[in-house]
Write a structure and sequence with these properties.
Oligomer: single chain
Number of strands: 4
Number of domains: 1
Mean pLDDT: 97
Distance between the termini: 11 Å
Low-confidence stretches: none
Length: 68
């Protein structure tokens, strides 16, 4: 799954609906994860995934990568 909504609230809403539907081993790409202009998304996503026991890998492209 690739999320690129450019809004923290929208991306968390999408995760609330879609993440549990992803199969184990599925790949999630979070666009703009590492860019300062989207720090509110990064913070919200970090908190969301920490509560579920996941950690996001920040890529040199600025994207975030997670393998479920």
């Amino acid at each position: 799954m690739h999320l690129d909504l450019n809004n923290a609230e929208a991306e968390i809403g999408a995760l609330n609906i879609l993440f549990d539907r992803m199969l184990p081993g599925a790949i999630l790409v979070l666009d703009d994860y590492g860019w300062l202009g989207y720090i509110s998304q990064k913070n919200a996503e970090d908190n969301w995934f920490e509560r579920r026991g996941y950690k996001i890998l920040e890529l040199p492209t600025g994207q975030g990568l997670l393998i479920k």
